[in-house]
Design a protein that fits this description.
single chain; mainly beta; 1 helix; 6% helix; 14% strand; extended
Length: 87
Amino acid sequence: MQHVDDPLLERARPADDPLSTFFWTSGEDGRLRFARCADCGCFSHPPTAHCPRCLGTDMRRSRSPAPGRCTRSPSTTSSGSRARSRT
């Protein structure tokens, strides 16, 4: 197999950000870390400055509940409008 030097095939390194550096460097010890709202307890992934549930601003670093035990809730957010075709 031939090596292809294509920058689009390389994974970009996240920008240095004090808000999320702990998230990107966690996992090395087997524990994932997330931002968690101190007001309502909602986890935020990836870390955000405001809680997605209550819009609180007291987001704290939190470890996953137990090694290997996390529940993923898939979601999709769409924005913008769709143009309707008229025939």
